[in-house]
Inverse folding.
């Protein structure tokens, strides 16, 4: 059974930082190291959008809105993907999810809420 468990969200002031984690499990992730992974987010009233992606080889890509502020990384031994977020803005407020990238699965975890507000 596939499972993606996101954590690390919270309430932070503008300009602050957070580090999100996502642990993957299940047969599809049996060889986690060969799977591209990404972070996505969904703000209230908006569609889910890609934020950052990391390939099996460690190459990364970012949405223009987060370039220079967010950093995606992975620990294959722990089957975990991270998103280090800095210089957070109110418009970063959303539920953040991880999934395969490209081509996310239909299954989504519960996500982790990030709220940027003073």
């Amino acid at each position: 059974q596939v499972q993606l468990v996101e954590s690390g969200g919270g309430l932070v002031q503008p300009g602050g930082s957070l580090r999100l984690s996502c642990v993957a499990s299940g047969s599809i992730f049996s060889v986690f190291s060969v799977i591209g992974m990404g972070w996505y987010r969904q703000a209230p009233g908006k569609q889910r959008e890609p934020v950052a992606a990391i390939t099996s080889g460690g190459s990364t890509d970012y949405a223009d809105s987060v370039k220079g502020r967010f950093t995606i990384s992975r620990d294959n031994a722990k089957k975990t993907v991270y998103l280090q977020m800095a210089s957070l803005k109110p418009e970063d407020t959303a539920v953040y999810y991880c999934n395969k990238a490209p081509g996310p699965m239909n299954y989504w975890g519960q996500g982790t809420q990030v709220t940027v507000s003073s």
Summary: The mean pLDDT is 97. The first strand starts at residue 3 and ends at 7. DSSP finds no helices and ten strands in the chain.
